[in-house]
Specification:
There is one protein chain. This protein is of the alpha/beta class. The protein has one domain: P-loop containing nucleotide triphosphate hydrolases (Rossmann fold, 3-Layer(aba) Sandwich), CATH 3.40.50.300. The chain is built from eight helices and five strands, in the order βαβαααβαβααβα. Strands 2-3-1-4-5 form a five-stranded parallel sheet, sandwiched between helices. α1 packs across α8, α2 crosses α4 and α3 packs parallel to α7. It is globular, with a radius of gyration of 16 Å.
Length: about 170
C-alpha cells in the first residue's frame, strides 16, 4: 500500500506520517528531510536551497526520482509537498490549516519568534509555489487530486491520525 501525505509547512505532515508508519508497520519516506539533507550537505539554509532550486529543476528531480524508486520497491508512507502528484498512491492525503497557526507551530519547533517564522514561511511557500508551477505546471494550492483533506487546526494529532486510519480501513481493495 502506498499512501502519500502532503501539506504546507507546519500542517503536521511529519507527525502524521511518522505515526501512520508506526501504526501500520511500514516505512516512512520524508522528502522534506531529503531536501534538508541536501541543504546541509551543500552548507546552505533551506531558504537558500529553495532559491537555488528555482534556478533549475535538478534538486527537485533528485528527490522525485528517489521517491518514485522507493515507491516501486514496496509499501510505504510518502511524505512530501508533491508526493500526491508524483506517485500512484492508494490514498492521497493533504493536510491544511491557517498560515498563522502553521507559523506558530514552526516557531515553537525551531525556537523562533512568531513574526520571523511567519515571514520565513511566506517566503518559502511563495518560492515553492513558483518552482512547482515552473517545473511541473502544478498549482500547489489546488487540492483536487487528493482523496482526503484534513484541517489540522480543527483536529489534534490523534484525531487526525484516526481520520486517516478510518479512510485506510474504508479503502476498496
Amino acid at each position: 500500500m502506498i499512501i502519500t501525505i502532503s501539506g504546507a509547512p507546519g500542517t503536521g505532515t511529519t507527525t502524521l506520517a511518522r505515526s501512520l508508519a508506526a501504526e501500520l508497520g511500514i516505512r516512512w519516506v520524508n522528502s522534506g528531510e531529503l531536501f534538508r539533507k541536501i541543504a546541509s550537505e551543500r552548507g546552505v539554509s533551506v531558504k537558500d536551497l529553495n532559491r537555488l532550486a528555482e534556478r533549475g529543476p535538478e534538486i527537485d528531480y533528485l528527490i522525485d526520482d528517489a521517491q518514485k524508486s522507493l515507491a516501486k520497491s514496496g509499501p510505504g508512507i510518502f511524505e512530501g509537498r508533491l508526493s500526491g502528484h508524483l506517485l500512484n498512491a492508494d490514498l492521497k492525503v493533504v493536510l491544511k490549516t491557517d498560515l498563522k497557526v502553521r507559523a506558530g507551530r514552526i516557531a515553537n519547533r525551531e525556537s523562533k519568534l512568531l513574526e520571523d517564522s511567519l515571514a520565513e514561511t511566506r517566503v518559502r511557500e511563495e518560492s515553492e509555489a513558483r518552482r512547482y508551477m515552473k517545473y511541473y505546471n502544478i498549482d500547489i494550492a489546488d487540492l483536487v487530486i487528493y482523496d482526503l483533506v484534513v484541517d489540522t487546526g480543527k483536529f489534534d494529532e490523534r484525531g487526525t491520525l484516526n481520520i486517516v486510519l478510518a479512510a485506510i480501513r474504508s479503502l476498496k481493495q
